[in-house]
Each structure stands twice: as structure tokens, then as C-alpha cells.
Amino acid sequence: MLQPLIDSFRFFRNNLQNIATLIFVFVLISKIIELATTNLLPPSTSETSVALLQVLLSFLLNAIFQCTFILLLVKINKKQKVILLQCFREAMPFMPFYMLGGSLVNIIVFIGLLVLLVFPGLYAYARLNFFDFAIVIRSEDPITAIKTSWRITTGSVIRILLALMPLSVLMLIFVATFTLIDERTFITNTLGSLIFWTLGAFFVVLRYRLYIMLSSPKSS
To answer: What is the pLDDT of residue 220?
Structure first.
């Protein structure tokens, strides 16, 4: 399963300009949201309310990023002209479906990890990981997209976990380590956001390469 990782590195490097531009735009938006929720809300707003609002806005921003980035990857793969603003506009109709599908998948994986002693959660993580590509690329509704992800991953759970888990663990370690930093400046936060969004973008590229492989006639 090293080939998808190698292909992803090559793809990321060859299309770095478009990918870096998209990452920069979303890091900028995330910083604006962070500053707005920190400084513009009434002083009486509780810390819990601010934190909840930031989580919801982050979830929304991530949905927009994922759908936009998938469309960008598809256009690059088809050797079409890439216009980021056009990808952004085309991503908007998919965003509600992504958010609904993502919520369902996260709940299933969460139950599997915490309630059913880890392994069912990892199994569900591998089987349902490609629902977003089915939503954006195939224009499927969330339930159909989840079924599609389940179908194309039949017999490939171990391969998927071997390909995705190292980067998933790396991202979790980064987030956990970053949150332990007591005094974070604006520059530190921005640098952390750049690293996190870059890792996230590479993770999408890796999943896209796996999705193409799993969707091919040979893998069916």
C-alpha cells in the first residue's frame, strides 16, 4: 500500500501552487473566524458559548474546504483548467450533504471506538471513509454515498487502515501536542493552522488516490 502514498506525494508536489493557495485562503478565513468570535461577541457571552460557536463554524469551514478541494482534485486529475473560485461555487450545493453524511459517519465511528471496544470503530472508519467522494463526484445523497463507500471498500479494510492510520495518528499527535502549549501567540496559532490544514489537505489527496484505486473495475 505504499503506492498510493507515493502517488499522493507526487500529486501534492506537482500541484503545490493550487493546493497551497487553497490552504492559505482557508487558513486566512479560519483566523478571521477565530478573531471575530474572540473579539466581536458581547462580553457577557460565556466561554462555553464561544467554544461551541467556534466548533460549529470550524465544522462548516471544514465542509466547504473538503468539497472544494475534492472538486479541485477532480479537475486536476481530468487536466481541466482550475479556477479556485469556480470550485468554491460548485462545492456549495454539496456542503449540506457532506455535513449530514459526516455527522452520521462520525457518530458510527465514535460508537464503534468508545462503546464497542475500538476495533468495530476502526472497521467502520475504513469502510465509510470515502462517502464524501461519492457525494461530490457522484452527486449522491448521504445515505447512498455511505452505501457506496461500504461497497467499494469490501475486502480492502486492512489495506485502507495501513495507508491511512499513520497519517491519522500523526495528525492526532500534532493536535494533542499543540493544545498542550500554554502560551500561544498569534504567530504560533497561525503556524499551527498552516501545518494542520496542510496535513489535512495531504490526507484528502491520499484518500482520493485510494478512492480512485478502489473504484476502478479491477478493485470492484
So the answer is: 45
Nearest in space to 62 (alpha carbons), one of 214, 216, 204: 204
Residue 148 to residue 141: CA distance in whole angstroms: 10
CA 106 – CA 211 distance, rounded (Å): 19
In the numeric block, which cell numbers belong to residue 7?
502517488
**Strand, helix or coil at 81?**
coil
Segment 68-95, tens digit of pLDDT: 999 999 999 998 988 889 999 999 999 9
SS (H, E, C) 101-114: HHHHHHHHHHHHHH
State how far the alpha carbon of 45 is from the alpha carbons of 24, 31, 39, 51, in Å.
Answer: 30, 20, 11, 10
